[in-house]
Amino acid sequence: MNAFSEANEFSGKRILVSGGSKGIGEAIVSRLRRGGGSVLATARSIPASSKPEEFIQSDGSTRMGADHIVKTTLERFGGLDILINSVGGSSAPGGGFMALTDDVWQQEFELNLFSAVRLDRGFLPAMLKQRSGVIIHVSSIQRTLPLFEATLGYAAAKAALTNYSKGLSKEVSPQGIRVNSVAPGFTETEAATKLIERLAAESGTDTGGARQNLMKSLGGIPLGRPNRPEEVAELVAFLASDRAASITGSEYVIDGGNIPTV
Fold first, then answer.
1. Quick check: is 154 catalytic?
2. What is the DSSP letter of 38?
3. Which of 2, 113, 120, 237 is the most exposed place for a label (fewest CB within 10 A)?
4. pLDDT (mean) for 218-242
5. Are 72 and 123 spatial neighbours (Cβ–Cβ below 8 Å)?
6. 3-state secondary structure at position 224
7. Distances from the Cα of 172 to the Cαs of 125, 127, 175, in angstroms?
8. 46-69, pLDDT tens digit by residue?
9. Which residue blocks in 15-62 are alpha helix, DSSP H?
10. What letters, b where the CB count within 10 A reaches 16 and e where it falls short, cover 97-127?
């Protein structure tokens, strides 16, 4: 355990992490639990190896699902201290802009913007009443580096999420609520690893070569490798902790140098 993983760092903190069953969300849940927090995670389906009482099974991209998450969390915790909005992703088809129908656009915004807005709306009254709380939105570097072939809707939704996060922080920070966002670049989650393995098989190369080709297609990563989920989780943990008590209204990029501009 490193110097920033004190067992009591989040002791007494009631925490909710949306999309906490895999990828970056799962790493965030693990990190905050190691820090002593009482953590609930949301997921559309609960992993078989997990404890059901540690999850809320719900689709956070729907209004009904978000309402269920808020209601269940407040019933179990009686309030909330830290909200991590990490649910997100894209299932849009390839083919560029013309392949994105109204339904696809709506789906991208429901999952990547409205899911966070609804949870914020549900938990902010309790946070405002206690005059303390932390909200963190997981955005993406695609908000400034959109990829038009398939994820244009996702990129636009994440851009909106970052803008919304800044505006919310200006409203609620004077009342004791800190709001920040984190923008990861390419992160080698389990899903990304499977993608790399598939690309390697299709191109007849090894996974190392496929990984390098994928990074090159994204514009290159000066660090020479993708993020690891636990690295993103460590940044989120810092921003959620009292060590970041004066940080609000900011976005932190973690991308190995992928974004080429200041």
1. yes
2. E
3. 2
4. 97
5. no
6. coil
7. 11, 10, 5
8. 988 889 999 999 999 999 999 999
9. 23-34
10. eeebeeebeebbbbbbbbbbbbbbebbbebb
Q: Are 14 and 77 in contact (CB under 8 A)?
A: yes
Distance from C-alpha of 234 to C-alpha of 48, rounded to nearest angstrom: 26
Q: What is the C-alpha separation between 88 and 75, in angstroms, rounded? A: 25
Q: Would you call 45 exposed, middle or buried from its count of C-beta atoms within 10 A (0-12, 13-18, 19+)?
A: exposed
pLDDT at 150: 79
DSSP label at 114? I
Reading phi first (left if > 0) and then psi (alpha if -120 to 50, else beta), residue 257 is in left
Tell me how far apart the terminal alpha carbons of the chain are, to the nearest angstrom: 33
- DSSP per residue, 57-80: E--TTSHHHHHHHHHHHHHHHSS-
Cα–Cα distance measured from residue 60 to residue 113, given in angstroms and rounded to the nearest whole number: 11
CA 160 from chain centre, in angstroms, equals 14
Q: How deeply is 190 buried, as exposed, middle or buried, from its count of CB atoms within 10 A (0-12, 13-18, 19+)? A: exposed
The structure tokens listed for 165 are 């996060």
Token couple for 8 = 């009591």
Distance CA 161, CA 99 (A): 23
Q: Which of 234, 211, 207, 210 is nearest to 223 (CA)?
A: 211
pTM over 0.85: yes
Exactly one of 109, 154, 186, 252 is catalytic; name it: 154
